[in-house]
Amino acid sequence: xxxxxxxxxxxxxxxxxxxxxxxxxxxxxxxxxxxxxxxxxxxxxxxxxxxxxxxxxxxxxxxxxxxxxxxxxxxxxxxxxxxxxxxxxxxxxxxxxxxxxxxxxxxxxxxxxxxxxxxxxxxxxxxxxxxxxxxxxxxxxxxxxxxxxxxxxxxxxxxxxxxxxxxxxxxxxxxxxxxxxxxxxxxxxxxxxxxxxxxxxxxxxxxxxxxxxxxxxxxxxxxxxxxxxxxxxxxxxxxxxxxxxxxxxxxxxxxxxxxxxxxxxxxxxxxxxxxxxxxxxxxxxxxxxxxxxxxxxxxxxxxxxxxxx
Length: 309
Description:
Elements (H helix, E strand, L loop, with lengths): L2 E4 L6 E4 L7 E3 L6 E3 L29 E5 L6 E5 L6 E3 L6 E3 L94 H34 L9 H30 L3 H11 L9 H11 L2 H6 L2
Antiparallel strand pairs: 1-2, 3-4, 5-6, 7-8
């Protein structure tokens, strides 16, 4: 009568003779060498034992076992509490895992207060009493602290400045960023561009009017001197009136040109005001009339007196 065995490697059933008891045979499928048990066991029930994770006693309580979960196959495992801190193997995927436990951690003591620290005083029940004074900081392990000798004024922020307050015209202006001329700011805090733009437009217009006026005066003198125009046939009053008007326009625009230069250089406030007033007269240039009003608003102010000082 033959003996049936199961190969632990490929789980295939092997049929061996009774005479092979106590000897080693080789699996015909996976070539695994296994030993045939001796004795006379029931050939129908003879099996090779497999090692699995220990299971708790069915009669044991739930407190004497530990619940685990394999990290590889997520199979729930139950091991006795005596295996705490030991390594077991999963019965499904043969992954080794360590049972947690094995010791009770000591209770951690609260950290000690640093040396030299003074706890703050408890507030009193009086609602009108002063606030409690915080404890003085100590040096500790960082090479020293502020200490009680440092005045509290050094720990406070500078005096706050109201961003919506209107500065007084006579108050001194402060500049941040170095020299105010380099930063493009004047003594009053205005930008130099506010003066330069209307001054340049006024100078360009004045130079144009002066050029046209000199050309017209020279042309009339040339025609009269060359004899191309008969002096007796010309209305003398009208001719001299036009020449006088041209001379007046050239003179006034010369004042505008000088005032524009003074406005750019901020050297002569009176000359700059004169140029602005002349420019506001529509008869001397309706195109630059708004520029003259702009210049008057800038020059007839308290800030202009500081900028031209």
